[in-house]
Fold this sequence. Notes:
Blueprint: H1 3-8, H2 10-30, H3 36-41, H4 44-76, H5 86-118, H6 133-173
Helix pairs in contact: 2-4, 2-6, 4-5, 5-6
Amino acid sequence: MNLKKFIKERWISVYILMFAAILYFVYALSFMTPFYRLFYDGDSAMFELYKNLQLLNQFIFNVALTTLILTILLLLMEVDKKVSNVFRLLFLIGFFIYQVNNLSVYIGSVPYYESSYLSLDFSILENYTVSTVMFSLSYVFNIGILVTLLITILLVLKRIVKMMRMEKGVKANG
Length: 174
């Protein structure tokens, strides 16, 4: 299957979206794991950051859960099938707007948490590896879901336009 055919297949984009939503949900469940040592072995500044990270974790979890539910609704609405309608398109556009809003929150908050994390003195923690991967993954998942949603929206829109053209052709001939 070549890339052009792959991109045209709407069901592939919907299942990629489902896979990404599941991975995003698992990521949300494990977000705080690398930071547990800050709570148990860290000083008061690390403990405060750990408590503040709970707010970011709660937001990421809520977004991931909502994304997973919306993706399941896409499957229940059979967006992956050939039949398209305006309601499905509006649902996809609403889902896309929701994800754009979440990305704007990430862009506004994640750098703050990341810089707060990097400003800590980790010398009191033995064998602790400083890593900002968990912060970066929030962008990766959100942007990946946005791109997949955009492709799906364009495919549904293309199908609706094609159906409208076919319908006009039938009316003109009839």
